[in-house]
């Protein structure tokens, strides 16, 4: 295949994976909508009373059927998300193969966002069974779908060769680490956001989405685990690999470029979050707010810098 054909393949794969994410989102919404009719608990006394009234068999059958439907919609959603991730991977790989010469597929904001959303999905799928993340499914698929739409509509850039500043193996190391950390921080931020929502509305209808989320302590632990994993990866990306790449590209390790400053701000916020958790015992609402502030600085660094600082950043191309 020619480079132009690989670019077309990448664009088509993005459209296909977006459609698959949309169908996965619909499946998970159907899963949770169906779950609203399934009692969270059912006692033998209730079943016996219903049976005595002549409707016991119907009630039990309806619960069984609904439970099966919930599980079926959940499986369909996960399968569609897996398919979407596979096509998403094709989109990322063919994007790199479309360049002449072939290069890594993260030379601009469009490509970085395309790859970072893939990492969010992969992280979710890897953790799905271990931590029973069915409750996170609609959030992940919705987030990835919306982000891909924004990426295509606002950030799309035709394939071009890498600039001279990007011709370094340290770029590969730096950006891979940044993408992994971004995916993990984003998953942790989703858990923190759900924590705040559930805390704000604790008494929701039985069977609804919020009532079926894990407890507040479980949400808090999940957020902490993902962000504790992401922090050392981000430290390596922003404070070790990044400066080494900068030395190769521009002859200085640190130049107070806007993206460098915001990468450091992100590091400080998450360092404060983890330090407070370890020493002051910060948990719950305060920790969730700090984590979301960190996530906001992270995504502003990747997207907002270009819009607000433009050519004032040496990283304006990415």
UniProtKB/TrEMBL annotation:
InterPro entries: Cyt_c_assembly, Cyt_c_biogenesis_CcsA, Cyt_c_biogenesis_CcsA/CcmC
Any GO CC annotation of this UniProt entry: plasma membrane
Signal sequence range: none
One GO term (biological process): cytochrome complex assembly
Keyword Transmembrane helix: yes
A single GO molecular function term of this UniProt record: heme binding
Topology relative to the membrane: Multi-pass membrane protein
Subcellular location: Membrane
Pfam families tied to this protein: Cytochrom_C_asm (PF01578)
Transmembrane intervals: 12-30, 76-97, 109-127, 139-159, 171-197, 228-246, 261-280, 287-309
Occurrences of domain Cytochrome c assembly protein (ranges): 106-307
Keyword Protein transport: no
Keywords from the named record: Cytochrome c-type biogenesis, Membrane, Transmembrane, Transmembrane helix
Protein name according to UniProt: C-type cytochrome biogenesis protein CcsB
Annotated source species: Nocardioides pocheonensis
Classification lineage: Bacteria, Bacillati, Actinomycetota, Actinomycetes, Propionibacteriales
């Amino acid at each position: 295949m020619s480079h132009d054909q690989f670019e077309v393949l990448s664009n088509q794969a993005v459209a296909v994976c977006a459609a698959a994410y949309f169908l996965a989102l619909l499946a998970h919404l159907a899963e949770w909508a169906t779950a609203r009719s399934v009692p969270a608990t059912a006692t033998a006394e209730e079943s016996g009373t219903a049976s005595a009234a002549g409707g016991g068999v119907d009630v039990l059958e309806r619960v069984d059927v609904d439970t099966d439907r919930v599980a079926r919609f959940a499986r369909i959603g996960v399968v569609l998300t897996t398919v979407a991730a596979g096509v998403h991977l094709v989109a990322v790989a063919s994007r790199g193969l479309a360049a002449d010469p072939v290069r890594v597929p993260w030379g601009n904001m469009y490509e970085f966002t395309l790859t970072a959303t893939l990492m969010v999905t992969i992280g979710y799928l890897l953790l799905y069974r271990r931590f029973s993340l069915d409750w996170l499914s609609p959030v992940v698929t919705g987030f990835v779908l919306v982000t891909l739409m924004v990426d295509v509509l606002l950030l799309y850039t035709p394939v071009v060769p890498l600039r001279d500043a990007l011709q370094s193996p340290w770029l590969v190391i730096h950006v891979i680490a940044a993408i992994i950390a971004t995916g993990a921080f984003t998953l942790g931020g989703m858990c923190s956001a759900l924590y705040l929502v559930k805390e704000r509305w604790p008494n929701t209808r039985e069977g609804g989405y919020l009532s079926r989320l894990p407890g507040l302590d479980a949400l808090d632990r999940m957020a902490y685990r993902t962000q504790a994993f992401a922090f050392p990866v981000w430290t390596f990306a922003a404070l070790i690999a990044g400066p080494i790449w900068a030395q190769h590209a521009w002859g200085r390790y640190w130049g107070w470029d806007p993206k460098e400053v915001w990468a450091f701000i992100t590091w400080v916020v998450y360092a404060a979050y983890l330090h407070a958790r370890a020493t002051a015992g910060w948990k719950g609402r305060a920790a969730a707010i700090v984590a979301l502030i960190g996530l906001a600085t992270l995504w502003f660094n990747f997207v907002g810098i270009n819009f607000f600082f433009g050519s004032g950043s040496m990283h304006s191309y990415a």
